[in-house]
Specification:
The longest helix is centred in the C-terminal third of the chain and has 18 residues. α4 packs across α5. The protein is α/β, with parallel strands linked by helices and 460 residues long. The protein has 14 helices and 15 strands. The chain has a single domain, classed as TIM Barrel, CATH 3.20.20.80. It is globular, with a radius of gyration of 21 Å. The strands form four sheets. Strands 4-5-6-7-8-9-10-11 form an eight-stranded parallel barrel. The relative contact order is 0.18. One of its GO terms (biological process) is fungal-type cell wall organization.
C-alpha cells in the first residue's frame, strides 16, 4: 500500500500474555438487523443474495498520525455521511485499538448498511517479513486474537485480514508459511471461541512474478489451512485505460476456476486524472465470475494524492474531485443480476512448485506456539491497544512443523493443536530458518507422540 505499513521492523520486546478470560458466544453488539456476510464457492453472500464489496480504505491520519477511526463516534458520524453519499457498503480499516469501545461506530455503520473489513495487525504487533520465525510468537498471536474478540460479535464485521503485503518481492516469499499459519490460527480461534464463521484471508501486494503463486498457496492443502478468501492491492488500471490495456482481462483468465472469493483490497491508480473507469469492468459480468468487487484507496488525503476527501475539522470534510468521480462511477454501474456467474463449487488449489520466484516447498506450516494454543480454550484476554512493548522479538516462537489437521477446531478439543510433528514431506522456510520434520525413526516417533499427548493434555 502507498502510505500505511503494518510491518515495521521494531525493537525486541519482552511483554507477556495478558490474563485470558472466556469471550466466545456473546450476543451481537450492533443493534442493526444487518445480515452477516458468508462465503459460498468463490463468492460472498448476504443471505441468499450475491454480495459485492463496494468500498473504500479508511484510515484518517495514515501511518504518520495513527489513530483508531472507529473508536470516535463523532468522527464516524462525520464520515458515514460521506460514505452514504458515495453509495459504498464496506470500509477497510488498517489499524484499531483493541482495548477501545467500538459499539457506537459499528452500530452506526450497520445502520447505514456498511460492513467492516479489518486488518488485525498494528505496527507494534505484526509479522516481520525479514525475520518471520521470530515475529510469529505467542505474544503476537495473543494480541491479534484479542482484536478478533473485540470485533467478532458485530454482525457487520465482514472479514479479517491476517496480513497486508508481507510478501512484496521474490526474495520475501519464504515468509509465506508464516502468513498462512497466522490465517490458520485466526480461523481456528474464531471456531474455537464459538463465534460465527467470519471469513479470514490475506491482502497481497500485486507482484507479477508471484501473485498467482501466493493466491494458490493460500488456497492449497488441508481445509484447516486454507484461507476463506484472497485479496490483492492492484494499481495497474490507470485512466484512460481499458479491460485489455490494463491487463485485467489476463488476471481474470489466470484466476478462472479459483475456488475462494477474490477481491481488490486496494485499487485506484492516480498516475493521471482518476475517473474510476475500472468500476464499470469490476462490477460487470466480464469480471464477476472471478472477482467480488474492491476497495478504493483511500478515503482521506494523507499527502500522497489518493484522497477522496480533505479532512478540515473533527466535524467537516471537503469533497475532492476524486470523490465526485467515484460517486458517479459507482452510481452508473449496478451489480449484475443473479449470481454474476460465480463458481458455486469452489475447491482447493494445487500448491505452487518451488521456483526462483517462489521460495516455498510444499505446504508444511509452523506449528502454533504452545502458549497461543492454550488461548483457543481460555480466550485471549486484554489486548495491547496501540501501545504495548511490541511482539516481534518477544519469544515464545513455534518449535516445529504442524501436523496435518492441527488447525481444526476439533484438534483443539482433542489436545493436538500444539503438536509439532509433521506428516508432510515438504518443509517451510523462514528467513534463515528451516522448519524440519521430526525424526522419522518409528520407535522414537511413537514415544514422542505419546509424550506430546501427555503434554498437550496438561497444557490444555
Amino acid at each position: 500500500m502507498k502510505t500505511f505499513s503494518t510491518f515495521a521492523a521494531l525493537a525486541a520486546a519482552t511483554s507477556v500474555l495478558a490474563a485470558p478470560s472466556p469471550t466466545g458466544g456473546l450476543t451481537p453488539r450492533a443493534s442493526s438487523s444487518i445480515v452477516p456476510i458468508t462465503t459460498k464457492g468463490n463468492a460472498f453472500f448476504q443471505g441468499d443474495k450475491r454480495f459485492y464489496i463496494r468500498g473504500v480504505d479508511y484510515q484518517p491520519g495514515g501511518s504518520s498520525k495513527l489513530v483508531d477511526p472507529i473508536a470516535d463516534a463523532g468522527t464516524c458520524a462525520r464520515d458515514i455521511a460521506e460514505f452514504k453519499k458515495l453509495g459504498i457498503n464496506t470500509v477497510r480499516v488498517y489499524t484499531v485499538d483493541n482495548t477501545a469501545d467500538h459499539d457506537a461506530c459499528m452500530s452506526a455503520l450497520a445502520d447505514a448498511g456498511i460492513y467492516l473489513v479489518l486488518d488485525v495487525n498494528t505496527p507494534l504487533y505484526s509479522l516481520n517479513r525479514a525475520t518471520p520465525h521470530n515475529s510469529y510468537n505467542e505474544v503476537y498471536l495473543q494480541n491479534i486474537f484479542a482484536t478478533i474478540d473485540a470485533f467478532a460479535n458485530y454482525p457487520n464485521t465482514l472479514a479479517f485480514f491476517s496480513g497486508n503485503e508481507v510478501i512484496n518481492d521474490d526474495k520475501t516469499t519464504s515468509a509465506a508459511p508464516y502468513v498462512k499459519a497466522v490465517t490458520r490460527d485466526m480461523r481456528q480461534y474464531i471456531g474455537s471461541r464459538n463465534y460465527r464463521k467470519i471469513p479470514v484471508g490475506y491482502s497481497a501486494a500485486d507482484v507479477n512474478s508471484n501473485r498467482l503463486e501466493m493466491a494458490e498457496y493460500m488456497n492449497c492443502g488441508p481445509d484447516d489451512e486454507r484461507s476463506d478468501f484472497f485479496a490483492f492491492n492492484d494499481y495497474s488500471w490507470c485512466d484512460p485505460s481499458s479491460f485489455q490495456i490494463s491487463g485485467w482481462d489476463q488476471k481474470v483468465k489466470n484466476f478462472t476456476n479459483y475456488g475462494i472469493p477474490l477481491f481488490l483490497s486496494e485499487y485506484g491508480c492516480n498516475t493521471n486524472t482518476r475517473k474510476f473507469e475500472e468500476v464499470a469492468a469490476l462490477y460487470n459480468t466480464e469480471m464477476t465470475s472471478v472477482y467480488s468487487g474492491g476497495l478504493v484507496y483511500e478515503y482521506s488525503e494523507e499527502g500522497s494524492k489518493y484522497g477522496l476527501v480533505k479532512i478540515d475539522s473533527p466535524t467537516s470534510v471537503t469533497e475532492l474531485p476524486d470523490f465526485l468521480a467515484l460517486k458517479s462511477a459507482l452510481a452508473a454501474q449496478a451489480d449484475p443480476a443473479g449470481t454474476g456467474g460465480y463458481n458455486a463449487t469452489g475447491g482447493a488449489s494445487g500448491c505452487p512448485a518451488q521456483s526462483p520466484n517462489w521460495d516455498v516447498s510444499g505446504d508444511a506450516l509452523p506449528a502454533i506456539p504452545a502458549g497461543a494454543a492454550k488461548l483457543m480454550k481460555s480466550g485471549a484476554g486484554k489486548g495491547a491497544g496501540l501501545s504495548g512493548k511490541g511482539s516481534q522479538n518477544a519469544g515464545g516462537t513455534s518449535t516445529g512443523t504442524a501436523s496435518a489437521g492441527s488447525g481444526s477446531v476439533t484438534a483443539v478439543a482433542t489436545g493436538s493443536a500444539s503438536s509439532s510433528t509433521s506428516t508432510s514431506s515438504g518443509s517451510a522456510k523462514s528467513a534463515g530458518t528451516q522448519l524440519q520434520p521430526m525424526d522419522r525413526a518409528p520407535l522414537f516417533l511413537g514415544l514422542f507422540v505419546a509424550g506430546m499427548s501427555f503434554v498437550g493434555a496438561t497444557l490444555l
